[in-house]
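Hi there,

I know you've been waiting on this one. I reran it after we fixed the sequence typo, so this is the corrected version. Both the input and the resulting structure follow.
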Amino acid sequence: MTFLARSTILAGALLAATCATAQTAAPAKVAETSKGRALVDAKGMTLYTFDRDAAGKSNCNGTCAQNWPPLMASADAKASGEWSLVKRDDGSMQWAYKGKPLYTWIKDTKAGDATGDGVNQVWHVAAP
């Protein structure tokens, strides 16, 4: 087997392993925010839950979703453990943690901000 053929096989194996890891990785991580430990998205932005959501259903659409952007899931995302998927009214998919849909807050401007906690007494930092 030539060096090029071995390199191609190795590259393909690494790509397959990376794809498998990406599909099973949690859509958020835990980080320190201005309100303590919380779930954050890939950019470090604090995630929130909405008291008016029903179990496994988002009730934040339209203007609400413009101010509280949902943590969107890709078409090939798979639920795993405490992470699930919620189908939004427009048919898109959103991540949920322990059945609660997750959102960011448009007024958080940098990673670690948690200015949405307590807004209208219905928005809360998503606790791990």
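Quick highlight: Residues 3-24 have pLDDT under 50 and may be disordered.

Best,
R. S.
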